Amino acid sequence: MSQEVLSLKNATIYQDKNPVLIDVNIEVKNGEFIYLIGRTGSGKSSFLKTLYADLSLTDGQGSVVNYDLATLKEKDIPYLRRKLGVVFQDFKLLPDRSVKENLLFVLKATGWAEKAEMDLKIEEVLDKVGMKGFANKMPHQLSGGEQQRVGIARALLNDPELILADEPTGNLDPQTSVEVM
After folding, report:
1. Where are the domains of the chain?
2. d(Cα 96, Cα 117) in Å, to the nearest integer?
């Protein structure tokens, strides 16, 4: 029986105190692949922000990788996020750091210390997204699709239990989209 990695029951998702999704019920088990489809402004990003605790869950029940969203304390949010891989719609790369330095920043922030291990992990994730030769490039030297691939590589660094992606292939060509997924 697969382990549950995400569950919402009778949840209401808010944005600026306004409900954007009401009575949300979803259960996702380990290994499942779920697409959330909807019009612009329909609440998809707010839904994801609730899952990684950028927005609080105040109505209903919710659990993500064994963290109770309704009772989650501020001090526990970094620990929740270490179990998640998040691919942001706008990449969120640090503009003053190379691709490798962007990835190193995440590894150091999540407790990695051994340089050789970090270098191997960075090489591994960049290879997975077809960006192996781009470690020394700066974000402004990359196309939108290449930046998106780096964002996906960043999400894979800590072998997350759950990957949350907000339009992960929006800037990629159809062939690369298939490869990434």
Report:
1. 4-82, 99-159
2. 24
Q: Which residues contact 101 (CB under 8 A, 6 or more apart)?
A: 94
DSSP codes joined into one string, 139-181: GGGS-HHHHHHHHHHHHHTT--SEEEESSTTTTS-HHHHHHH-
- Tens digit of pLDDT for each residue in 2-25? 799 999 999 999 988 899 999 999
Distance from C-alpha of 158 to C-alpha of 43, rounded to nearest angstrom: 28
Q: For the beta carbon of residue 135, count every other beta carbon within 10 angstroms.
A: 18
CA dist., res. 37 & res. 54, Å (int): 20
What span, in angstroms and rounded, lies between the C-alpha atoms of 157 and 144? 20
- Of 1-10, 131-140, 165-174, the least confident: 165-174
Q: What is the pLDDT of residues 87-124, one digit of tens each?
A: 877 778 999 999 999 999 999 988 889 999 999 999 99
> What is 4-82's CATH number, 3.20.20.70, 3.40.50.150, 1.20.58.1190, 3.40.50.300?
3.40.50.300
